[in-house]
């Protein structure tokens, strides 16, 4: 008779290609890294590498980490939106494609190490600053297999009115949500310039 399977919390996810012990040790290191640097886990997302992520050089292709960062930003925005009572503002922040939402304006990515399959990446995102029309975010990609950061992105997101097809100002509840997650306010009548799109 087969023994009972271990609890899912104490093993690698079903179908994960990493050795379970390596996975758990890497996950613990990633969570510790996040905590030491103030990245909220409610805004983090774990992504397993896929065989097809690799390129001819046998490492994860350079475009893939940018997709991981995009997933991280979406997870971050959903975490902020969960705290917003206004249903329309919440839907817009989650990417409804209508009303006043978010549009991505700029990204700078630094490749710190190549990533190899199999691996799991913890995508950590937090906000740096918020102005009346823009938001800066930092994203770190942390490799379980290497137990180290493998990439870092700095991005700028803008408040955007999809119905009017132009930039707009953040709803005050969005600003509150970003500040609650560590954003420093700039340009709100404190003498600093407003961001432009």
From TrEMBL:
Protein name: Thioesterase domain-containing protein
Organism taxonomic ancestry: Eukaryota, Fungi, Dikarya, Basidiomycota, Pucciniomycotina
InterPro entries: 4-hydroxybenzoyl-CoA_TE, HotDog_dom_sf
Domain of life where this protein originates: Eukaryota
A GO molecular function held by the record: fatty acyl-CoA hydrolase activity
Pfam families per UniProt: 4HBT_2
């Amino acid at each position: 008779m087969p023994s009972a399977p271990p609890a899912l919390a104490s093993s690698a996810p079903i179908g994960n290609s990493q050795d379970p012990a390596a996975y758990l040790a890497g996950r613990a290191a990633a969570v510790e890294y996040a905590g030491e640097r103030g990245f909220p886990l409610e805004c983090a997302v774990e992504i397993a590498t896929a065989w097809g992520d690799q390129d001819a050089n046998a490492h994860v292709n350079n475009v893939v980490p940018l997709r991981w960062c995009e997933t991280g930003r979406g997870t971050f925005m959903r975490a902020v939106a969960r705290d917003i009572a206004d249903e329309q503002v919440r839907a817009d922040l989650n990417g409804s494609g209508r009303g006043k939402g978010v549009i991505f304006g700029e990204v700078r990515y630094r490749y710190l190490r190549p990533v190899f399959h199999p691996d799991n990446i913890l995508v950590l995102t937090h906000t740096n600053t918020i102005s009346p029309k823009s938001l800066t975010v930092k994203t770190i990609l942390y490799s379980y297999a290497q137990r180290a950061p493998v990439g870092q992105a700095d991005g700028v997101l803008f408040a955007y009115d999809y119905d009017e097809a132009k930039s707009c100002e953040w709803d005050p509840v969005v600003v509150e949500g970003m500040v609650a997650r560590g954003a420093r306010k700039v340009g709100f009548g404190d003498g600093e310039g407003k961001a432009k799109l």
